[in-house]
Amino acid sequence: MKLFSSVNDVSNIHQIVSEAISQKQNPFADEQLGKHKTLGLIFLNPSLRTRLSTQKAALNLGMQVMVMNLDKEGWALETQDGVIMNGTTVEHIREAAGVMGEYCDVIGFRSFPGLVNREEDYSEEIFNKFVKFCGVPVLSLESAIRHPLQSLADLVTIEELKKTEKPKVVLTWAPHVKPLPQAVANSFAEWMNKADYDFVITHPEGYDLAPEFVGNAFVTNNQDEALAGADFVYVKNWSSYNDYGKILTDGEGWMMTNEKLKLTNNAGVMHCLPVRRGLELSHEILDGPNSLVLNQANNRVWAAQAVLKSILESLT
Amino acid sequence: MKLFSSVNDVSNIHQIVSEAISQKQNPFADEQLGKHKTLGLIFLNPSLRTRLSTQKAALNLGMQVMVMNLDKEGWALETQDGVIMNGTTVEHIREAAGVMGEYCDVIGFRSFPGLVNREEDYSEEIFNKFVKFCGVPVLSLESAIRHPLQSLADLVTIEELKKTEKPKVVLTWAPHVKPLPQAVANSFAEWMNKADYDFVITHPEGYDLAPEFVGNAFVTNNQDEALAGADFVYVKNWSSYNDYGKILTDGEGWMMTNEKLKLTNNAGVMHCLPVRRGLELSHEILDGPNSLVLNQANNRVWAAQAVLKSILESLT
Amino acid sequence: MKLFSSVNDVSNIHQIVSEAISQKQNPFADEQLGKHKTLGLIFLNPSLRTRLSTQKAALNLGMQVMVMNLDKEGWALETQDGVIMNGTTVEHIREAAGVMGEYCDVIGFRSFPGLVNREEDYSEEIFNKFVKFCGVPVLSLESAIRHPLQSLADLVTIEELKKTEKPKVVLTWAPHVKPLPQAVANSFAEWMNKADYDFVITHPEGYDLAPEFVGNAFVTNNQDEALAGADFVYVKNWSSYNDYGKILTDGEGWMMTNEKLKLTNNAGVMHCLPVRRGLELSHEILDGPNSLVLNQANNRVWAAQAVLKSILESLT
């Protein structure tokens, strides 16, 4: 693999899930594979899980890791072409990406959306430019509209714990105080569609995801209907795609609780973290036996390790 | 050892001092011990000596190190239970600690006190919650009321240089322009009490440390009386414990100088650093032969290495 | 080598260029040399290329690397002697440097000029104090008035690509919106003088570099005259040395373009980066075949590796 930016970059999702589980069982089996190879982790936005889990995965594979928080340690990047750079941006992404490609064999890159201009965000302009100009294999550490390492870890978590071949998986919108990207929801949806589960999305009116991500999912504004018999419930806030980047409702009644859990098939409750307790998810669920959030976080390591292994194997 | 948060976590202080000195003589003797083990260093507050010395100690032991400045690279943590997180805190310490425990075999954690609510600070709430929810061995990189790695390095320094079995050790308050935690003074006092030296504490009125830390020390507001015949003088500012977190005096006359050194038994002068020159300690002392501040800083490595070794040996 | 702060610290520039090219051809040939040696990279100012390339060079040599962004992770340093530190500076450079020398075998240090007091900046006070008080070998990661790792990488780039023994090399001033240090221009000039090329400097009136850096260069305010027949053109902004730290002109007409390239001998165009596109250098040049900026960036690794190798060999 030369690029890991969406589910479409993976030729066989079952194979990469198997690889992740295999890495989990034997974390140091491939520690010679990354010898003399350097992974650069470039963040334009904050990160905790993604940074630590990807760093750990790379170290397990014997790689060297260099972390650069460009937003804090570096400077503002220009992403528009042809402009006169006489303002506050200090370096163009063409040079910045090119230079980092000179120092790294593989690069992980994170850049959040602006949530102002939908067309711009959904074109993945910054991520795609970075990929183009760095000239080395790139894995997404979350881009404007996707978070594929998270989704792969989520898929691994479900595959490890599912009791039926085609579990019912529900993605439910949850309230939040800040407008958040659609990235995690988009990515989860496209991976679930590919996994061919019984996949349902539920959210208040006005929060429909982009059609290319919804795919074949059943969509309803009735959360209770969605939750009925669910094996896994993925809780996540996102801001509106149609009224782009906006918060349309305070979402009263949409928080996931033990009461709602009764509607499900004793579902495992998932969240990518960080989670707002008492707002997105109740304390009782997070502290109870149905929470899978730490399983998901743990699986971030093995998802990253499977992806990095595949990238390392593709290096000449 | 599964936890290093105070002198009480050490079964035998003479043994751990010996271990630190042994590591100093042969820094790479145990470099296989930490193979495939990851140390996370999590800072909610700035650090220079603690970060570098602990990182170095872990590398000497063959560990991988991941540093996370949560205050700068991450986001604000919620520490209260049961609240609705609809404010500025982005993640609860339950999840943040739990996740970091998934990625690290051992964690070092730093969190300073607020210096507003004494009961809260002295309950070590944040540190204790982190320990509880991360689920892996933790060493304190300074908590609200203790700085045990500093104190162990201080003890090593005294043990290396003392000329009598029970040297006279004086902890003297010094002036400062900002209200500082009592952590270093508290910790130094509890380690000196355990070491069973001739231990004296001197400070202006109103700066008494908490009784559980003072222990059997002789306490006086007369600095000259305290310094008389001292073998080691530890200079440190702290804010008031009784009038919690307050500065009660500008401390004129309390700065340690060569003039005062004459009262002592040619004492070694100690400070944990960073030190305010010309305010806490005179330039002449810091630039003179009695200063032990770099000895202490150097011993931070071996203190951390002895603690990490003991923790690594306890991992199954 | 115990110190790398300027071209004068290098006994033979041809030899160190050869060493850099040799490291480039075989990056891991000396990976045992740095075993058990720690490089500290201390930044008082932001860095991208310098940090990543020096970190990579050290890892190639088998060293451990600890990065400290003192401006962000640490605190403000006091550099004046004899003052009462009752203000905003938290630690004196004497202690900060001394402590870091206890933890590192070699230190890289970056400190930019204030551009207010010329005498102070040109005395290299902060850099020299750091060197003095840390007590271990130091390599400059850019000081107030020099950037020697950049210049060595630039020299390697020219040596790799030159077609004549003594190429014509032109350093041309370029417009910028912020007052920048003279460091890169100064350093480039002193390395070019040492290399004994046909070296020309061109800039608008008032932008003369300090005489000790100009050396034997031919200086002209006529850019076209300077560019005529050039083999290499180094484009760089700097603020005024005479009217210290000031911007004297918006520099209209001084941007390097393809039109001006026609005056040259199909010159290779160089810049240390970050570059302001459309202001210092045209988009067409940066995206065209004459740009050497990524060659220079790549050679930063091998320049640093040659310097670090020489320093490591000098350690007892």
Q: What would the keywords be for this entry?
A:
alpha/beta, homotrimer, 2 domains, 13 helices, 12 strands, globular, Rossmann fold, 5-stranded parallel beta sheet, 316 residues
Q: Could you characterize the architecture of this molecule?
A:
In chain A, strand 8, helix 8 (183-195) and strand 9 (198-202) form a beta-alpha-beta unit. Chain A has 316 residues and is of the alpha/beta class. In chain A, 38% of the residues lie in helices and 15% in strands. The relative contact order of chain A is 0.17. The first copy, chain A, has 13 helices and 12 strands. The first copy, chain A, folds into 2 domains: 3-146 and 300-314, Aspartate/ornithine carbamoyltransferase (Rossmann fold, 3-Layer(aba) Sandwich), CATH 3.40.50; 150-296, Rossmann fold, CATH 3.40.50. The model of chain A has no long low-confidence stretch (mean pLDDT 97). Chains in contact: A-B, A-C, B-C. At the A-B interface, helix 2 and helix 13 of A face strand 3, helix 3, strand 5 and helix 4 of B. Chains A, B, C: N(2)-succinyl-L-ornithine binds at residues 142, 176, 236, 276. Chains A, B, C: Residues 5-160 form the Aspartate/ornithine carbamoyltransferase carbamoyl-P binding domain. Chains A, B, C: Homotrimer. Chains A, B, C: It is an enzyme of class 2 (transferase).
